[in-house]
């Protein structure tokens, strides 16, 4: 990345005004060298270390952006691993429509820049693509021809993908790892695959017999799935309706959506409302993918902070810490570890 065109990253705790963030995003989206190495960092300078495994550029911001911004601002090392470049995404910006897979097939390279800009907005400095940028291609939605391409992530050699991730885990040494549930949240093949790779790497990274050439074994302590409680979805649907907005994904009930988990399954609630502007700025950075007038931003305008700035997780490996949050939930991903 060419730092000459970018303002300095925010200090921990500093809030980036949305206008300033927009300027950063525009600059970064055009100035990024996708092959740049991650900035040098020393994991053990950070007492708290969080690793997120996501499928496509934009998933990190939509699902976990407020959490990432909060922990980055609190000086945790936040490491983002993105498994594909999102080459098969739909392009929502008319003047960039030519980038699409069925035209120039240049969307992946463009999205490297969008993701770099989003990370800038989130204050996240350690970002990698699994296996390097473009190692695995976006597989497209389930049962589409893109699933058949040999280079797509859905067809990845799992052993190779897991090895790549174990290398990152042993370098970054996270105590906490976040990925999707076994259905990838909503059934996208790359999300399902990201889950499989993350779980296998979580289990293998601490095993001294596994690939010793990848570094000193490191066993993360907690593994979480990101989740949206049904009640949060339902309140979004209800409040948008009451506000006279167009409906949310065309449904009346959260039960009709292909995502959302029962409230009593949720173990952890991260209140990151103070970092909501960072999340929305990061989402805006993904301008080919997220409509500024679409349901996400309608939500952020209408029901705002609670639906958008509080993110939920389900602990699937490790011990639950103190239930200091609402409904017996943890309010900190690192609860019980410090
Ligand atoms: Zn995705």
General description of the model:
This protein is an alpha/beta fold and 338 residues long. The protein is 33% helix and 11% strand. It contains nine helices and seven strands, in the order αβαβαβαβαβαβαααβ. Strands 3-2-1-4-5-7-6 form a seven-stranded mixed beta sheet, sandwiched between helices. Helix 1 packs antiparallel against helix 3, helix 2 packs antiparallel against helix 7 and helix 3 runs antiparallel to helix 7. The protein is globular. The N terminus is likely disordered. It binds zinc ion (ZN). Zinc ion binds next to loops.
Main sheet properties: 7 strands, mixed
Structural class: alpha/beta
Strand order of the largest sheet: 3-2-1-4-5-7-6
Strand proportion: 5-15%
Ligand inventory reads: zinc ion
Please specify the SSE layout and strand pairing.
Blueprint: H1 18-31, E1 49-54, H2 59-73, E2 77-82, H3 107-122, E3 126-129, H4 158-172, E4 176-179, H5 189-204, E5 222-227, H6 230-242, E6 268-271, H7 276-285, H8 295-302, H9 304-309, E7 310-317
Parallel strand pairs: 1-2, 1-4, 2-3, 4-5
Antiparallel strand pairs: 5-7, 6-7
Helix pairs in contact: 1-3, 1-7, 2-7, 3-7, 4-5
The chain binds zinc ion.
The site of zinc ion (ZN) has 5 residues, from loops.
């Amino acid at each position: 990345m060419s730092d000459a065109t970018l303002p300095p990253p925010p200090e921990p705790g500093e809030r980036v005004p949305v206008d300033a963030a927009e300027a950063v995003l525009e600059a970064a989206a055009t100035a990024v060298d996708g092959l740049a190495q991650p900035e040098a960092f020393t994991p053990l300078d950070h007492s708290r270390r969080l690793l997120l495994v996501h499928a496509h550029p934009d998933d990190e911001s939509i699902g976990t952006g407020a959490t990432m911004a909060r922990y980055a601002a609190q000086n945790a090392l936040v490491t983002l691993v993105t498994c594909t470049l999102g080459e098969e995404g739909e392009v929502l910006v008319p003047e960039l429509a030519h980038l699409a897979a069925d035209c120039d097939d240049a969307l992946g390279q463009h999205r490297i820049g969008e993701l770099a800009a989003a990370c800038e907005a989130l204050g996240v400095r350690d970002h990698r693509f699994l296996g390097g940028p473009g190692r695995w291609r976006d597989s497209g939605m389930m049962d589409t021809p893109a699933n058949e391409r040999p280079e797509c992530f859905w067809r990845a050699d799992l052993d190779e993908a897991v090895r790549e991730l174990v290398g990152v885990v042993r370098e970054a040494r996270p105590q906490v790892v976040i990925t999707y549930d076994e259905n990838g949240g909503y059934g996208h093949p790359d999300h399902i695959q990201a889950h499989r790779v993350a779980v296998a790497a979580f289990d293998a990274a601490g095993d001294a017999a596994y690939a010793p050439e990848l570094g000193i074994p490191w066993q993360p302590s907690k593994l979480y799935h990101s989740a949206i409680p049904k009640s949060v979805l339902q309140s979004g649907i209800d409040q948008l309706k009451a506000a006279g907005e167009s409906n949310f994904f065309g449904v009346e009930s959260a039960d009709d959506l292909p995502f959302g988990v029962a409230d009593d399954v949720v173990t952890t609630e991260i209140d990151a409302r103070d970092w909501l502007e960072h999340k929305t700025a990061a989402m805006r950075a993904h301008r080919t993918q997220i409509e500024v007038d679409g349901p996400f931003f309608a939500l952020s305008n209408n029901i705002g902070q609670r639906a958008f700035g509080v993110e939920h997780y389900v602990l699937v490996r490790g011990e639950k810490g103190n239930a200091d949050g609402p409904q017996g939930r943890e309010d900190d991903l690192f609860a019980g570890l410090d």
